[in-house]
Amino acid sequence: MIQELQLRVTPPVAAQMSVLTDHVAREKGIDARTITHIRVLKRSIDARQRTIYVNLTLRIYINEQPEDDCYPKTVYQDVSEAPRVIVVGAGPGGLFASLRLIELGLRPVVIERGKDVHERKKDLSLITKTQRVDDESNYCFGEGGAGAYSDGKLYTRSKKRGSVEKILHVFCQHGASTDILADAHPHIGTDRLPRVIENMRQTILRCGGEVHFQTKMTQLLVSGDQVTGVVAQRLTDGRTVEYHGAVILATGHSARDVYRYLDAARIEIEAKGIAVGVRLEHPSALIDQIQYHNREGRGKYLPAAEYSYVTQVDGRGVYSFCMCPGGFVIPAATGPEQIVVNGMSPSHRGTKWSNSGMVVETRPEDIEGDDALRVMRYQQQLEHDCWIQGQRRQTAPAQRMADFVNGKLSYDLPPSSYAPGLVPSPLHFWMPEPVTRRLREGFRAFGQKSRGFLTNDAVLIAIETRTSAPVRIVRDSTTLQHVRMRGLFPCGEGAGYAGGIVSAGVDGERCAEMCAEYYRSL
Questions:
Q1: How far apart are CA 513 and CA 515, in angstroms?
Q2: Are 115 and 213 in contact, with CB atoms under 8 Å apart?
Q3: Whether 314 contacts 298, CB under 8 Å
Q4: What is the pLDDT of residue 160?
């Protein structure tokens, strides 16, 4: 017999399978020895009151063995002789587009400006050692995209057409823990995601696709109103190569050279709003105490606590973004003379710090000018200003949280996870006034909501600007092709149609499906 059951239990019960089995047996009025297996289908933590509960949806196997597969697996076919589709970018949008193309009988040819996920890791370690950033291999460029080494959070509020469950299933099929199928806020972890990405690449290659690293798109091949391929440069030897086929353009939100090229080539793009602010880092023990309403913190059975804050100040949203419990703040610049920060967590979420982006909604009309690249230039200027304040290195300017709110200089700073180092700086003075004013009011509101949150034990680290793409590559809402160029499918976060790993994956699959429709129409 197989039954499903919803339970609300304390953390010690939820965390120990033997205890949970006894609890289920009592609930069902049966002998615990008849329960052969319990599968957790959904799991979430309710920390709204002082007593913490875990909400569980369970599948109970009574005198019956569980099925081997707890999720449907995708069958990938040999496409080595199939028509080619050029996929520009090996982030989540490009990888999921490629896998879906294989399902649909098309051959993906992936070109990625950065290195593979393991070689890329070596360049990331050099940022702290040398205080320099490799233009083509960094926290944003390379196999896996910006998400590969900046957390692997899979939670999304996206309502786009497409299956979030399918994305999670594909991750599991390539090595992610099946816990992501149950958790309300699924998370793979920066330490585990690279192997999953590598396995996805191996599937593409095994089925006859191609993956070319250190290969940078420089222009599109165009015939009339049709895109027929790309021109790319091999960064290892400087050679120019052409790849022919329809193009799925999934370059990520930091490929500014692509935006400049599209603008110069008069391929329609438009300015898009972003959010600008800082990384706010607290001791994780303090966040645990606040969120779990307990001076002892999370205890033995609860994970590092998460939070989510949002308010409105003068008509613009102020909110937490990409919250990383038990994580690190990382240097996410993509070139010289810029500082950008982001956050990530390992799978165990066990560091001494918790951080999140604290950002202010910034719309195109808030920035002077009327051209499509003005929001991007605004980003660039802020990142350059931050680099100057950071002593022209990757040492980031920072300020204690309460000092920022009160307009005071921090003469010393608390310990931080940011490996390149921090420099005391009056963020309230040099960051844009509309941003600092709204952040201050937002922090006051969040501090009133959660006692202890607004504290000088927390530090603001500048600057967070890469929350999303500053440009949207305009596409038709039905065909997903560019509004004027047939055969060009702007895709994912870099095209302005996704925000995060899962929504980019969903958009990648949709672009692949529309690309298959396009080929059938030729």
A1: 5
A2: yes
A3: no
A4: 54
Give dist(CA 335, CA 137) in Å, integer.
10
**Both tokens of residue 58?**
């369970």
DSSP secondary-structure letter at 148?
T
What radius of gyration, in Å, describes the C-alpha atoms of the chain? 24
Span 99-114, pLDDT tens digits: 999 999 999 999 999 9
Tokens of 192: 């585990």
Judge whether 127 and 133 are in contact, CB under 8 Å.
yes
Q: Is the peptide bond before 463 cis (omega within 30 degrees of 0)?
A: yes
User: CA 136, 141, 143, 149: dihedral to nearest 10 degrees?
Assistant: 130
Tens-place pLDDT, residues 316-364: 999 999 999 999 999 999 999 999 999 999 888 999 999 999 999 999 9
Nearest Cα neighbor of 243 from 221, 259, 224 is 221
Which pLDDT score, from 0 to 100, does residue 294 have?
93
Model's pTM, two decimal places? 0.95
Rounded Cα–Cα distance for residues 202 and 343 (Å):
28
pLDDT-based confidence at 70, cuts 50/70/90? confident
Q: Are strands 316-324 and 488-490 parallel, antiparallel or unpaired?
A: unpaired
> Please, how many CA atoms are within 13 Å of residue 204, restricted to the half-sphere of its CB?
27
Smallest CA-to-CA distance from 275 within 497, 502, 439 is with 439
Rounded CA gap, 289 and 160, in Å? 36
252-272 residue pLDDT tens: 999 999 999 999 999 999 999
Q: How confident is the model at residue 156 (pLDDT cuts 50, 70, 90)?
A: low
Angle between helices 501-521 and 92-103 (to 10 degrees): 40
d(CA 426, CA 397): 8
Please give the Cα distance from 277 to 436 (Å, whole number): 8
